[in-house]
Amino acid sequence: MKQLVNRLNKRITIRKQTWIENSMKEKKQSWIDYVTVWAAIEPLRGQESLVAQKSESTVTTRIRIRFREGIEPSMMIEYRGISFEIMYIIHPEFNKRELQLMCKERG
User: Fold this and answer.
1) Is the pTM of this model over 0.70?
2) CATH number, residue 96
3) Given CB 3.0 to 4.6 Å as the disulfide criterion, which of 29, 52, 56, 77 pairs with 84?
4) Which Pfam families match (predicted)?
5) What's the number of domains the chain is made of?
6) Is the torsion defined by CA of 36, 39, 45, 46 positive or negative?
């Protein structure tokens, strides 16, 4: 645990989707801040592909945080203006010490 704590040097905000009703009673999806935590951010690989005659790049990133209940793949992460989509969550050794959020950058 001590090694992980030393690497948690980035402040991230985890956001979740919610429905907001405007003054005309119309519902609209919006992102709200769920929690702000310390994290380690590790870009793992980049990939470029051609989709519909357009070049697209994807960066896969591992974001490590201390264990906490309630984190779900439907959430997203914000760090210094960069948005990350959570693809899946790894819970190493199921010891309630750490979560590894496997993410890709959102465009």
Assistant:
1) yes
2) 2.40.10.270
3) 77
4) Phage_HCP
5) 1
6) positive
